[in-house]
Amino acid sequence: MGCPEFACGIPCFAYNSVPMPPQAKTSSSDPAGSESHFVKGLQGVVASQTSLSLVDGEASKLYYRGIPIEELAQQSSFEEVIFLLWNGRLPLKPELSSFKSKLASYENIPEEASPILKAFPKNVHPMAALRTLVSALGLFDPTSEKIDLASTQLHAFRLTASLPTIISAFYRLRQGKIPISPDPKLSFAANFLSMMHGKAPLPEMERALDAYLILLADHGLNASTFAARVTASTQSDTYSAVTSAIGTLKGDLHGSANQRAMEMILEIGQPEKAEGYVRNLLAQKKKVMGFGHRIYKKEDPRATVFRGIARKLCERTGETKWLAISERVEKVMLEEKGIPCNVDFFSASVLYILGFPVDFFTTVFAASRVAGWTAHVLEQRADNRLIRPEADYTGPRGRRFIPIEQRK
Questions:
Q1: Which has more pLDDT, 10 or 169?
Q2: Distance between CA 358 and CA 198 in Å, rounded?
Q3: 392 class by beta-carbon count within 10 Å (0-12 exposed, 13-18 middle, 19+ buried)
Q4: Which residues are registered as beta bridge partners of 56?
Q5: Is 179 helix (H, G, I), strand (E, B) or coil?
């Protein structure tokens, strides 16, 4: 299946250019009449095929379009990774330049949406504000109801480019400050930090945020991505699909884990208190945020990269206390439980040092993952079938209606 190239010369999103990895192929649902199998939480159930990212739980590896995440985090940029996810290959130099310009051209939000953002209560959760305004953006896009591939590609640009603008605008409005307009000359990461804080970030800060955005951009059929694909499979619009994803990411069992991890680190306060704090949580059989992963059997590969990023950034900014606390918490967890940390643990300190308020952490996650969500929506559109699983009925049978006068 193909589509016309963009007028700007950027190639169309190429789904068929990348072969489906063998491990992604599986049989379809059981034939009608055969015994169904219930799996709580759908763990291990293959519900979709994708050529976007491979999450190898046994080897604790993550690949985007076949490229190891470590190489992308160290050598690439978020813009280049967006291109990779959307097009199935790395861009040539002229293509990347054109792609960045096109992305930057959609960073501003519609003027009509600004009063809506300003009307939000300042005490609402930032993810609620983001979810609501993303939904509202569809009202001001005359193409929002179109679901053909070319229109969906356009929506992908608009949504991915505008999320940092929305997030930073709400942050500044909450502080009683005027939102800052995006600067198309800056990188995606630098522009995000500049709109948040009103000044150009240090190169180390720009690079740290860029790496974060790269590492969180896609992760197989996670809960929010599944929500986006389910919505898209009904032939609903892209804004609805991304709104579904944001609402799903908002939950504590998905996107807000880095917020909870930083709240724990802040509550510990000092490195020498870390060991006792963690052992007390374990004694009460409470969860230590930022540890363990449903898929990875060993350490989350993104956490491995982030440990180094956090160390460099903490040393560069002089905020080594958070790193010291994190390392002691990690040491106790490995000694007592043998459970390695996940991407949320060390990324929490990085986002905090970058100046993001703790309750905004999940919005930054969304600003990264929207690249993957829209890639999955495009992939779903290219070969769509309504996602409609069965449910295992556990209620009563054989009951009859009793008129209200006869009920006791």
A1: 169
A2: 19
A3: exposed
A4: 61
A5: coil
Mean pLDDT, the chain, whole residue set: 89
Helices and strands in the chain, H and E counts: 16, 3
Specify whether domain 81-252+359-382 bears CATH 1.10.287.80.
no
- Structure-token pair, residue 238: 């892209």
The CATH superfamily holding the domain 257-353 is: Cytochrome P450-Terp, domain 2 (1.10.230.10)
Sketch the domain layout of the chain as residue ranges.
81-252+359-382, 257-353
What's the pTM?
A: 0.88
Planar angle of CA 58, 86, 352, nearest 5 degrees:
65
Lay out the sheet containing 61-64: strands in order across: 53-56, 61-64, 67-68
Assigned token pair, 215? 């590492």
Taking every pair of C-alpha atoms in the chain, what is the biggest distance, in angstroms? 78
What does residue 259 show for φ and ψ, rounded to 5 degrees?
-65, -45
CA 169-100-66 angle, 5° bins:
110
Six token digits for residue 201: 């970030």
pLDDT tens digits, residue range 39-57?
777 777 787 899 999 999 8
Q: Mind listing the pLDDT tens digit for each residue in 162-203?
A: 999 999 999 999 999 999 999 999 999 999 999 999 999 999
C-alpha triplet 160, 162, 165: angle, nearest 5°? 135
Tokens 């643990």 sit on residue: 345
Q: Could you list the active site residues? A: 293, 344
